[in-house]
Amino acid sequence: MQRDYDKEPLIIKDINTFFDFLPAFVCIIICYIAYLLTDNPSSSFYRNAFIIMPFLTLPYIRPFIKCKREIIITKNTISYLNNGEVLESIDLNSPFKIYKSFSVAHHKSQKPHEVIQILWLFLLPGTIFQYFMNFILKLFYYIFAFKLKHYKVMDSVILLQDEKTINILSIEKYYELEKYFKDSHNINIKELKIYFDKYGYVYEKIDN
Known about the structure:
It is elongated, with a radius of gyration of 19 Å. The strands form 2 sheets. The protein has a 4-stranded antiparallel β-sheet with strand order 1-2-3-4, with helices on one face. The chain has 5 helices and 7 strands. The longest helix is centred in the N-terminal third of the chain and has 23 residues, at 44-66. A hairpin with a 3-residue loop joins β2 (69-73) and β3 (77-82). By secondary structure, the protein is α+β, with helices and mostly antiparallel strands.
């Protein structure tokens, strides 16, 4: 019997913010260790780094600690929620684009700024480094959390509609997501084209 997604929606906890949080948190730890171990911790460089680093990394740490993000999937709608409030909603009855990826960008505010889109070639090393970091972080996550049981390089499904972006990182529910798109929309997510984004995210402020 085919599942009625309007009565029993597919709910996926969004963990993309974890892969922003982790490198930022590691940077703070390294900074503090360097401050404590240096022979001259009162020097301006170590002191300023000790003070400034938490503020620089706050936009990456705050969403993971403070916000509960999840994706609600019904038959014809995919919604991205933050603490119960809908941030993005894509109507699958209207034209949309869908890709597979291992990007951790998760909603429209993380689309590169217009200036960055123009100058992105100058940021190409940052883009390459970002993808390398994503790959390494996710690999370790799969090893420690799942012993590589659910490992896939392209583990995300990204949907684009107008200015809306929703990135579904499913991991444990990947096969449920695969069944949803196959049964409800005749889309095989394994055969999707790969989505590559550019380095240089601009984070919007979410108060709740």
